[in-house]
Amino acid sequence: MPIIFPPPLQAGQRVALVAPARHVPAADLAPALDVLTSWGLEVTLGESIGPAHHQFAGDDALRRRDFQRQLDDPSSRAIFCARGGYGTARIVDGLAFTAFARHPKWVVGFSDITVLHCHLLRRGFASLHAPVPVLFRQPGGEAALESLRRALFGEADAGLAAPPHPLNRPGTATGELVGGNLSLLHTLTGTGSQASFAGRILFIEDLDEYRYHLDRMLLHLHRSGQLAGLAGLVVGHFSQLRDNAVPFGQSAEEIIDSYARLYSFPVGYGFPVGHEADNRALVVGRTARLTVDAGGSWLK
Q1: Given 90, 125, 152, which residue is the final one in a domain?
Q2: Distance in angstroms (rounded) separating the CA atoms of residues 188 and 195
Q3: Are residues 21 and 147 in the same domain?
Q4: What digits encode the pLDDT tens for the residues 212-248?
Q5: Spatial distance between the Cα atoms of 288 and 151, rounded to a whole number of angstroms
Q6: Which single residue of 49, 118, 166, 250 could bond 195 by disulfide (Cβ 3.0 to 4.6 Å)?
Q7: Which among 125, 103, 127 is positioned nearest to 113, based on CA atoms?
Q8: pLDDT tens, residue by residue, 23-59
Q9: Would you say 298 and 159 are in contact if contact means Cβ atoms under 8 Å apart?
Q10: Which helix (H) or strand (E) holds 107?
């Protein structure tokens, strides 16, 4: 299936901020509004910005209605998911993409927004795995924010680099990018949002997980055959990990390696993608080339 890429943004166009998952007070988005207006964009806050229903940004019906409105509105040229958390999977099955297909637009976010990236890719649309608006002014995130701007406006991108790592598996691979948060990739298995990994370069990251959870999720991806057809694997940040009183005994990278070594695809560790300030933008669905050698790893 050929991938459809939304057109680059232009100054003067309107974009929307919505919250398909966790509650976001409107005041928390003031820095993001400054950034987006400095890029020459007109910003609209969706109905889901502000309301709270327990930990969610309003109940499922409100969040679904708000997201659908932005999908359907041809004057809105990008949808920024204000933050992650949890809740996107609760609304995705009720979304219709008929109007969106006539006027594709960028859907931007990461973490819980992995649900939308995979859901869109399965239907042949590219999207942007990138910082969410509540983190736009995060100290140390300047390069990540600039990578998002360049991706949105269609400017040339030099790609990503990672330093040498002892667990790197040398080689080269070319394929469409797929991936995001490992917990969500695992959750989507067997659903209508599961995106195929076959022949693609998978990138993964995660936050606040127990080490044995990482092993369990990777084991499931292995046993379900999802790792077998990978062209390559890009490993991003695995941040703030937890362990039990009796340690699991392996780092996140060692856990990943224990499954990656069962295959022959190249693997690069330490890429600036995930729940750290330096979370560079990646276009899900774009064809990329992964090179891993003694000098490090490159994704272009």
Answers
A1: 152
A2: 8
A3: yes
A4: 999 999 999 999 999 999 999 999 999 999 999 999 9
A5: 14
A6: 118
A7: 127
A8: 999 999 999 999 999 999 999 999 999 999 999 999 9
A9: yes
A10: strand 106-109
- In whole angstroms, give the CA distance from residue 69 to residue 196: 28
- pLDDT 10s digits, 193-208: 999 999 999 999 999 9
User: What element of type H or E holds 290?
Assistant: strand 287-293
Q: 82 is in which domain, residue-wise?
A: 14-152
What burial letters (b/e) apply to 174-189, b meaning 16+ CB within 10 Å? ebbbbbbbbbbbbbbe
Give the dihedral of Cα atoms 228, 232, 238, 243; nearest 10 deg. 30
Q: How many domains does the structure of the chain reveal?
A: 2
- Write phi, then psi, for 236 (nearest 5 degrees): -100, -145
Active site residues: 111, 205, 275
pTM of the model: 0.98
CA proximity to 129, closest of 24, 271, 229: 271
112: left (phi over 0), alpha (psi -120 to 50) or beta: alpha
Q: Both 21 and 127 in a single domain?
A: yes
Domain match, 225 and 275 both? yes
Structural contact between residues 70 and 79, judged by C-beta atoms closer than 8 angstroms: yes
